[in-house]
Specification:
The chain is an alpha/beta fold. The chain has one domain (65-242): Rossmann fold, CATH 3.40.50. It is built from 7 helices and 5 strands; from the N terminus they run ααβαβαβαβαβα. It has helices at 12-32, 44-60, 77-80, 121-128, 149-162, 180-196, 220-244; strands at 70-75, 98-103, 135-139, 167-171, 200-202. Strands 2-1-3-4-5 form a 5-stranded parallel sheet, sandwiched between helices. Strand 1, helix 3 (77-80) and strand 2 form a beta-alpha-beta unit. Helix 1 (12-32) packs antiparallel against helix 2. It is globular and about 50 Å long.
Length: 247
């Protein structure tokens, strides 16, 4: 498959410490559910929101490794590494640079993509880039598959306003077997929105990735496949930008 742009185109001790911190705050997160993250959820959904919030904290607390540009990834369960034995091996680990990840499982551009209040991309975007960024990668869309286009557009606009300044690359949803039709619809909408807001768009809709039995989340091999594809696209984008920069 030949990709195109706008059309369709690492510290065991530190990990243990961050997981320990996440465990300590889990009780606090549960209490705060009614105030923020779980305000839209109840019962088993509230418990799931608490777990996702703890996982998100764990990901944000990971030490930033690598060198080069400061890259911030805003994403959903794929960026969180949900379903992997080691979430740090998510596709984001294949992206070059000093990469930090702000990921909340089940979230998307639309405010109601997740029952966990405050989980949507726009709510988290300002915090994600507060430490500075040279490049912002916003990755997702599968959780918006059943949301109104108007909600997707509104959420996208809010994200773009929140991260204004750094270069932005939008990575669209892949055609996961469980949400194929919705993913294709979201892919089309995101491609048009990225063009409108002068953001680069990387379509992954045509990738043949390896999925878990749920037909929604990626295996470790699937994460490697996606990560290597996105890294290659980012490199091509950077090369193209350098060619267009006058000497």
């Amino acid at each position: 498959m030949t990709p195109s742009w706008t059309a369709r185109p690492r510290l065991l001790g530190a990990r243990r410490r961050t997981r320990f911190v996440a465990a300590l705050v889990l009780a606090l997160v549960s209490v705060l559910l009614v105030l923020d993250v779980g305000a839209d959820a109840s019962g088993s959904e509230a418990a799931r929101c608490a777990r996702f919030a703890a996982d998100a904290l764990d990901r944000r607390s990971e030490p930033v490794l690598g060198s080069g540009d400061r890259v911030v990834v805003i994403g959903d369960s794929w960026s969180a590494g949900l379903g992997l034995d080691d979430p740090t091996e998510a596709w984001t680990s294949r992206v070059p640079g000093r990469v930090s990840v702000d990921a909340f499982s089940g979230s998307g551009y639309s405010r109601l993509a997740s029952p966990c209040a405050g989980a949507w991309f726009a709510r988290r975007a300002s915090r994600a880039v507060a430490g500075g960024a040279d490049l912002v990668v916003v990755a997702g869309g599968l959780n918006d598959a059943d949301q109104p286009v108007a909600a997707l557009r509104s959420g996208f606009a809010r994200v773009m306003r929140a991260v204004e300044g750094p270069r932005v690359v939008v990575v669209g949803p892949a055609s996961a077997p469980a949400r194929t039709d919705g993913a294709r619809r979201v892919d089309e909408v995101l491609a048009a929105l990225a063009s409108r807001y002068d953001a680069a768009y990387v379509s992954t809709i045509g990738l043949d990735l390896d999925y878990l039995d749920d037909g929604l989340h990626l295996t470790a091999r699937g994460h490697r496949e996606l990560g290597d594809f996105v890294a290659g696209q980012l490199a091509a984008l950077a090369a193209g930008a350098q060619e267009r920069t006058p000497l």
